[in-house]
Structure formats: structure tokens, C-alpha cells
Design goal:
CATH class of the largest domain: Mainly Alpha
CATH superfamily of the largest domain: ABC transporter type 1, transmembrane domain
Bound molecules: adenosine-5'-diphosphate, magnesium ion
Structural class: alpha/beta
Distance between the termini: 49 Å
Largest sheet: 6 strands, mixed
Strand order of the largest sheet: 6-9-10-3-11-12
CATH architecture of the largest domain: Up-down Bundle
């Protein structure tokens, strides 16, 4: 996701502003939280005023009757503070978590809409940190920081006005104290924006390394590369540490200044105030109230540092989110795309060329191929010749770069993705299973499949082993469940593809991980499925190729020969070569097993 790094930091606040649509449903709750926060902090600030009355009234006059009233008021203020503090936290806890969930769901939905080509290049760790910590940061700011920013600024203003009226020379001093705060805030924001972006990006990098190490643990261990991979991790994690230190230092400096300003202010207020009391310009009670209020103002000023820091971090987080949100799904329904309906299954490649987005050369060019309804065509080619790329074009995991692919005569880009993918079923080289039951994995593409259809698909794919799992079809498999062998996973993926008898079946080397015995069984079952379905099957072994009516030889990104297996074997030396290399190794494998 390197292109993301180039994004200018100037847009940060703009991105945060764009998040306002997520706040809109919670305007009412935000108002309640704002008022509650105002009451809480207001009550806290009012207590010194009560002290002023106590000192200037009952204490000065020696009349204790007013004491009860003022004591009751102080108690009431304390209760108000507690109750409204609770209300704010309570409202905040559910509505802000709702908002966080809404953002996260949108991000997830968008990631699902983005094409395979985007995910080819996006680092998983970057996406994971965006979906987790970035969104949490935004929630913390919108649900907490923003409210206190407004509340604190309001209180600072109100208290300052009050102080100005109480004794204007000292009030003016408080007003002037805002000048250094504003100045250092500007400097801080400028430095912090860069540091926080770098930290958040590095967090994504660290997550990527951890993710790769976890997914690739077998290879890492088997090759004895723990140290190398560990070294990469250490490098990333040290960089993150360094960047975090830079961030913390900036924050610490800023905080020190925010701490210093109220202290200096307090010292000056005490000094000048004492002189004023001595001169009789100010009552003792007013000075006590003044000093207490200035002490209490220290908190909003200090909190400003924290609020601005998370504000900046959430602006950066919003930037990172919008980098994903602003990526348009390139593969989407065209305006006016129609439902494919029940497809007969006439699949045609017309002058198809393909280049991976961002790559500098074509993987496929000038592909012309027709697969008649019900026909099976095998694709044979050396590794890297573009077989997988060719199969990925049919369900529109990628779009062709030139030419077109038609199904029943309609360009597949003119029908809805949903109907296309309902008609075209696929199984890939490395079958992915999700952390779910075997049944859920099977019915992923067809949630409405009946038990009979599931049983048939299992039987076709020779995946009967699922019945022997501890809880049968209900057994949880995938990452958080039972591990299956490569062959078992391929058979499940195959069952998933043939479930519900799709019009077009695209199989990318579906039998590669099967042993000779199972392969024979699956081939036998596949023969029955393929008889009724249009199919494009990438094949390596002669026995699989024999399932097909015709074979297309893919060489250098284009189809150089089409014919029956025997025709090609007779006519095309290159075909003979590719298949004999495969069958030799097959014999070796078979020999090894006996
Ligand atoms: N996501 C990708 N981005 C760019 N190039 C790719 C990508 N996937 C594969 N390629 C390249 O495209 C070519 C064809 O790959 P592929 O279709 O997987 O070959 P095959 O399945 O025949 O072994 C290879 O040269 C490969 O390096
Ligand atoms: Mg391949």
C-alpha cells in the first residue's frame, strides 16, 4: 500500500470533517453528553464560588444560619457532578460504540467490494490496523475528545468572563495566558501531525509482519528462518518504537508548557491578588474564589493537550480510512447491468488480452476460445503461462484489459456481478476455508442449498470424509477449527463449486493435491458433473485432461493449439512435452507410494 504513504497531511482535518455523517444519527445523544459534561465541569467550578460566599458571608459575619444553606448547595453541586458524569458516560458507552461499529462495518463492506487487484497490493496489516485501532481512535475523539474540546473552551471563556468581572486586572492576566497556549498549540500540531501519521503507518507494517509470520509459520520453521524473519520484525518494531518516542517527546514538551502556564498564572494571581487585598481593592473571599478558579482552570488547559493529541491522531486515522473509502471498486455493476437469468452456458473469449493492474506487460493476449454449452475444455500450459489469470477472468475477479468475454452472447460486464457469480462457480488451486462449520463452508455460495444437494456435491467431490469428522458437517474447520489435509481441503472446495449445479464451472487445477487413489475417484465423479456443465478446467495430468472434450494449449500468454487430447498429442510437440513431464512425475509419485 505504498501509494498511501504519499498522501499529503494537509487533508487531515478535512477527512475528520467528512466523518461527521457518522455523528449525524447521534446528534441528540451528543447534545445530552455535551450538556452533561458542561453541568459536571460547571458544578466542579461552582464549588469555589460557594467557598467564596462562605468566607465572605457566614465566616466574616459570624452568622452560621447561612452556612446550612451554602453547605446544602455545595452538596447539591457534588451530587450533580456525580449524576451527570454518570449520564454522560452511560450515553457515551452505547451510542459511541454503535458509531464505531457502523464505521467498521462500512469499512469492511467497502473492502469486500474492492477488487482482487486491490487486495493483491494492499498489505493485510495496514487494513487490519485501519479496521481496528484507527477506528477506535476516531471513536475516542468524536465521542469524548470533541465534547470536552467544546466544553473546555466554553468553560474557559465563561470563567474568564466571570473573572474579568470579579476583578478585571487579574482577569486580563488569565486572558493573556491564552496567548502562549495558542502559540505552542500551533507548533505542536505541525510536528505532531507528521509523527502520528508515521506511527500509525508503522503499526500497520508491524501488523503485516506479524500476520505473515503467523500465516507462514510452517515455511519459516521448516526453512529455519526464524532468525531472519525475527530480525525483520525487530527492525519494524524498533522503528515503531523510535517513531513512538518522537511522538511522545513532542507530546511531553507540549504538556510541560501546558502545565507551566497555569502554574505561572497562579503565582502571578496570588502575588497581584494579595497586593490588591492589602490595598482593599479585593475581598479575601473573592481572592480565594479567584485562586480556586484558576487552579480549576489548569485542568481544561492541560486536557487541551491530550484532546489535541487524540484529535490529531484521529484526523490521521480518518485520512487512512478515507484512503480506503476513496478507492473506487473498479469491478462493479455497470449502470443498466441486467440479471443474467438462467444461463445456457455458452462461454466465449473474444480477442481477450489481460494485464494485471500496475504490471508492465500483458499476461494474456489475443485469446479466442469458445466453450459450447455442456462442453468441457481443459487448459494446459507451463507454470506461469497465465492459466490462473485466464480462469480468474470468467467470474470477473479481474476484468479483461482488451477484447471481451461473453456468456450466452452477452458481455459478462453487462450483467450484474451477483447473477454472473451465481452462474459461474469456481475452485482455485489453494482452497481457502473459513473458520466455520464444514456445512457453512460448503454452502458459502449457495445459502439455500438443500440437504440433498449438499449430499450430492459431497459425493461428487468424494468428500465423504466430512461425515467422519467429530461432529460431522457441523464440525468447525478452518483457522479456528479442525485442520484438514490439502487433499481434503481441495475436495471440500470442489464440493463447494459443484453445489447447486452451476451453469459454468471454472476449476483451476482442482486435483493437484489429491493422491492417485482419490484423484481417480474424484475424476470419476467429476466426469458425471462435467457431462452436464460448461467447464473450463486447468489440468496437469493426462488423466484429468482426458475428462475434457477438448484441450487448449496456453503458451506465452496465448492459445497456440486447440483440439482433442489425442490430436494435440499427435500434432503438437510442445503439448507432448508438457504432459510427458507431468506424467513422468506422476509415475514417480505413484511408484513412491506403492
Ligand atoms: N497479482 C499479480 N500481479 C501481477 N502479476 C501477477 C499476479 N499474479 C500472477 N502474476 C504473473 O502473471 C503470470 C501468470 O500467472 P498465472 O496465471 O498464475 O500462471 P499459471 O497459473 O499458468 O501458473 C506470471 O508471470 C505471474 O508472475
Ligand atoms: Mg496457476
Amino acid at each position: 500500500m505504498s501509494e498511501d504513504r504519499s498522501t499529503s497531511n494537509k487533508g487531515s482535518l478535512h477527512s475528520l470533517w467528512r466523518m461527521r455523517s457518522y455523528l449525524r444519527p447521534y446528534i441528540g445523544q451528543m447534545t445530552v453528553m455535551g450538556i452533561a459534561a458542561l453541568v459536571t465541569v460547571g458544578a466542579e467550578l461552582a464549588i469555589p464560588l460557594v467557598s467564596q460566599r462562605v468566607i465572605d458571608g457566614p465566616l466574616a459575619d459570624g452568622d452560621s444560619s447561612g452556612l446550612w444553606w451554602l453547605g446544602g448547595l455545595a452538596l447539591l453541586l457534588g451530587v450533580l457532578e456525580a449524576v451527570f458524569g454518570f449520564v454522560r458516560r452511560w450515553v457515551q458507552s452505547f451510542c459511541m460504540l454503535d458509531m464505531e461499529t457502523a464505521i467498521r462495518n462500512d469499512l469492511y463492506a467497502h473492502l469486500q467490494r474492492l477488487p482482487v487487484a486491490y487486495h493483491d497490493r494492499a498489505q493485510t496489516g495496514q487494513l487490519v490496523t485501519r479496521a481496528t485501532s484507527d477506528i477506535t481512535t476516531i471513536r475516542r475523539f468524536l465521542g469524548f475528545g470533541l465534547i470536552f474540546l467544546v466544553v473546555n473552551v466554553t468553560l474557559f471563556t465563561v470563567v474568564t468572563i466571570y473573572l474579568l468581572r470579579l476583578y478585571w486586572p487579574l482577569g486580563l492576566l488569565v486572558v493573556l495566558s491564552a496567548v502562549p497556549v495558542a502559540y505552542f498549540t500551533l507548533i505542536f500540531e505541525r510536528e505532531y501531525i507528521v509523527a502520528s501519521r508515521r506511527c500509525q503507518d508503522l503499526q500497520g507494517d508491524v501488523a503485516t509482519v506479524v500476520e505473515e509470520a503467523a500465516v507462514g509459520i510452517r515455511i519459516v520453521k521448516a526453512l529455519g528462518r526464524r532468525r531472519t524473519i525475527g530480525g525483520r520484525f525487530l527492525h519494524e518494531s524498533r522503528q515503531l518504537r523510535r517513531a513512538s518516542l518522537v511522538k511522545v517527546r513532542i507530546l511531553a514538551k507540549f504538556w510541560a508548557i501546558l502545565d507551566l502556564v497555569p502554574q505561572v498564572l497562579l503565582a502571578l494571581v496570588l502575588l497581584i491578588g494579595a497586593l490588591a487585598v492589602a490595598a482593599g481593592d479585593l475581598t479575601l473571599g473573592s481572592l480565594v474564589a479567584f485562586v480556586s478558579l484558576v487552579v480549576l482552570l489548569a485542568w481544561p488547559i492541560e486536557a487541551l493537550g491530550w484532546i489535541l493529541a487524540i484529535g490529531q491522531e484521529s484526523a490521521t486515522a480518518a485520512d487512512r480510512l478515507y484512503e480506503v473509502f476513496d478507492t473506487e471498486p473498479m469491478i462493479a455493476d455497470r449502470p443498466g447491468a441486467h440479471d443474467l437469468g438462467a444461463a445456457r452456458g455458452l462461454l466465449r473469449f473474444e480477442g481477450v488480452g489481460f494485464r494485471f493492474p500496475g504490471a508492465d506487460r500483458d499476461v494474456l493476449h489475443g485469446i479466442d476460445l469458445t466453450v459450447e454449452p455442456g462442453e468441457t475444455v481443459a487448459i494446459v500450459g507451463a507454470t506461469g503461462s497465465g492459466k490462473t489469470a485466464l480462469t480468474a477472468l470468467v467470474p470477473r475477479l479481474y476484468d479483461v484489459s482488451s477484447g471481451r468475454i461473453t456468456l450466452d452472447g452477452t458481455d459478462i460486464r453487462d450483467v450484474t456481478l451477483t447473477s454472473l457469480r451465481r452462474a459461474v462457480a469456481t475452485a482455485f488451486e489453494d482452497p481457502t476455508l473459513f473458520s466455520a462449520s464444514a456445512r457453512e463452508n460448503l454452502t458459502l455460495g449457495r445459502l439455500d442449498a438443500t440437504d440433498a444437494e449438499i449430499a450430492e456435491a459431497i459425493s461428487v467431490a468424494q468428500a465423504d470424509f466430512v461425515y467422519d469428522l467429530p461432529w460431522g458437517l457441523a464440525t468447525r474447520i478452518g483457522e479456528q477449527g479442525l485442520s484438514l489435509s490439502g487433499g481434503q481441503r481441495q475436495r471440500l472446495a470442489l464440493a463447494r463449486a459443484v453445489l447447486g449445479r452451476p451453469s459454468v464451472l471454472v476449476l483451476d487445477d482442482p486435483l493437484s493435491a489429491l493422491d492417485i487413489h482419490t484423484e481417480g475417484l474424484v475424476e470419476e465423479a467429476l466426469r458425471r458433473v462435467l457431462a452436464a456443465t460448461t467447464a473450463l478446467v486447468v489440468a496437469h495430468r493426462p488423466s484429468t485432461v482426458l475428462l475434457a472434450d477438448r484441450v487448449a494449449l496456453l503458451e506465452g500468454g496465448t492459445i497456440t493449439a486447440v483440439g482433442t487430447h489425442h490430436e494435440l498429442l499427435d500434432r503438437v510437440p510442445a503439448y507432448r512435452q508438457i504432459l510427458s513431464a507431468e506424467s513422468d512425475s506422476d509415475e514417480v509419485l505413484a511408484g513412491g507410494r506403492r
